[in-house]
Write a structure and sequence with these properties.
globular; 185 residues; single chain; 24% helix; alpha/beta; 6 helices; YbaK protein
């Protein structure tokens, strides 16, 4: 089965959450940033929330799973945060491309507690939709090449299915090549 065929088959198995029911499932600030009609929200069990487990259970390849990672960095002596969206099948070039694109003097992955506190979302469910307005949202160019991606919904019990172009609706979205070349076997 090709990837698109597998995704179509998987879509029929998804526990889709109706738009009028989102308030009972997602944080309000995430819902406020979802473009109406352009994102499918569906429920997942907590044990299938992490990317590898989700991919295996729901039949989406890692190349169609977009993770949102919170980065803390210093630029011009000021501590700032950014949300980085990358595919589960690729490895971020943190100290090269990401650092250069942010113009960061230093950067690191935000600690779990800090990422949760600042985003207002659950760890393992953080999404680019609804992050604080002063954060930059960097989307790896490889994400934009996919026909659709699955990503966090602000909670571990739900996911978003969307065309990557929807990410461009985010006011603070920047697309750049942020990952290392795939290793040849």
């Amino acid at each position: 089965m090709h990837s698109n065929e597998a995704q179509s088959a998987s879509l029929h198995q998804l526990d889709v959450i109706a738009a009028d029911q989102l308030a009972g499932h997602l944080p309000a600030h995430v819902i406020a940033h979802l473009p109406p009609g352009e994102v499918t929200v569906f429920a997942v069990t907590d044990d299938a929330s992490d990317t590898a487990a989700f991919s295996e259970r729901y039949g989406f390849g890692l190349e169609d799973c977009a993770n949102t990672i919170v980065i803390r960095y210093k630029k011009e002596g000021v501590e700032q945060y950014a949300a980085i969206v990358t595919l589960g099948s690729l490895r971020l070039d943190i100290n090269g491309a990401v650092k250069a694109h942010l113009g960061a003097q230093r950067l690191s992955f935000a600690k779990r507690e800090v990422a949760v506190e600042h985003s207002g979302m659950e760890f393992g469910g953080i999404t680019a939709f609804g992050v604080p307005q002063d954060w930059r949202v960097l989307v790896d160019a490889a994400v934009m090449e996919r026909s659709q991606v699955v990503m966090g919904a602000g909670v571990r019990s739900a996911k978003l299915l969307l065309a990557p172009a929807v990410l461009r609706s985010l006011r603070n979205c920047e697309v750049a090549a942020l990952t290392l070349p795939a290793q040849s076997e």
